[in-house]
Write a sequence for this structure.
């Protein structure tokens, strides 16, 4: 009997250890800010050059549990300093922050997107709302977005170089994948976001880097986790009717063997002014991706999909020039994965079975 009790105790202890070991660890403040790419310098208006009156945030890590947000005006004037010691994802694209602002305690609700942040509510410890509904209480001014100066573009050869677009090999957006040339198609693997503040170029959540982070000429370009290193910084300069793009060591982005077809490796090598180093930038579609959200409006088409992948629905919308929004229904029970393509939308609602996204702006 004693042995039976002992075995039960041991089993319960083992189960408790397993549960404890597999419990999700809460993200640190640093990790939460990194997830949304919110560290660094975030201007309030990327449309105009910085001057002595331009507001911006500088978000920096103090330690893993503390991030400091300094609201700046011009190069040296600091309006406020916010020390965040707790950051919780209350819902997708929304954070609740516990923070000290100039030595006073606040609870702050912020909207976040990749590389962008905006305060919607800020409440003092005594319950006084400094910001409510995205407006400053003392005057009613709307709170601004602060974000990276990202320019979303597709990058393709000049016509005499073949006119092909840069994308990761086979359109796979993951670390270690080399860049190649391919027919331009406006799909997410061909959308590069250039950060005009630090020269970083990214596809999805990964940065364009040299393969292995090497600085030698002739190295292929590939995707890698963003680290702010010198091999992940690029500069775009005018060159006649095109541009040249230079990376680490002043080497030029180049097509291997000056090949004009698809599938050529993109590399860094000595600048020579050839067509293989002449590039053009075109504005990219500003694609969004919204989990657990559905749309209502007028749809162009709806159809079952051959696989359970929302990207199939998104791609269908991209290729249909009348489509502005897509909606994907996850397979459940007898329902097959399904896609709707909209040319007009009226509203958005919450639905855990749906993924949706915008491809083109709706005509006013």
């Amino acid at each position: 009997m004693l042995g039976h009790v002992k075995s039960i105790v041991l089993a319960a202890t083992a189960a408790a250890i397993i549960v404890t070991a597999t419990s999700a660890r809460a993200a640190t403040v640093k990790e939460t800010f990194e997830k949304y790419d919110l560290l660094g310098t975030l201007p309030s208006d990327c449309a105009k050059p910085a001057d002595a009156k331009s507001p911006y945030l500088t978000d920096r890590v103090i330690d893993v549990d503390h991030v400091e947000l300094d609201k700046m005006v011009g190069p040296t004037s600091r309006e406020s300093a916010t020390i965040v010691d707790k950051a919780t994802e209350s819902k997708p694209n929304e954070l609740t922050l516990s923070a000290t602002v100039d030595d006073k305690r606040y609870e702050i609700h912020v909207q976040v997107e990749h590389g962008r942040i905006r305060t919607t509510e800020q409440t003092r410890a005594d319950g006084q709302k400094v910001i409510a509904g995205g407006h400053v209480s003392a005057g009613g001014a709307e709170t601004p977005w602060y974000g990276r100066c990202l320019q979303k573009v597709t990058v393709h050869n000049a016509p005499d170089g073949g006119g092909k677009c840069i994308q990761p090999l086979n359109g796979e957006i993951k670390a270690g994948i080399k860049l190649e040339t391919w027919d331009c198609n406006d799909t997410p693997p061909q959308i590069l976001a250039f950060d005009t503040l630090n020269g970083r170029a990214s596809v999805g959540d990964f940065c364009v880097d040299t393969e292995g982070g090497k600085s030698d000429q002739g190295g292929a370009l590939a995707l890698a986790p963003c680290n702010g290193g010198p091999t992940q910084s690029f500069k775009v300069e005018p060159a006649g009717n095109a541009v040249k793009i230079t990376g680490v060591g002043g080497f030029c982005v180049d097509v291997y063997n000056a090949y004009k077809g698809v599938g050529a490796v993109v590399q860094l090598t000595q600048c020579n002014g050839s067509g293989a180093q002449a590039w053009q930038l075109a504005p990219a579609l500003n694609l969004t991706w919204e989990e657990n959200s559905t749309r209502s409006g007028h749809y162009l088409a709806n159809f079952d999909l051959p696989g359970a992948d929302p990207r199939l629905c998104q791609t269908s919308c991209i290729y249909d020039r009348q489509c502005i929004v897509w909606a994907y229904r996850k397979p459940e029970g007898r329902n097959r994965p399904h896609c709707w393509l909209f040319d007009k939308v009226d509203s958005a609602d919450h639905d855990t079975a749906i993924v949706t996204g915008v491809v083109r702006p709706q005509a006013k």
Q: What stands out?
A: Residues 1-23 have pLDDT under 50 and may be disordered. Residues 198 and 294 are 36 Å apart (CA to CA).
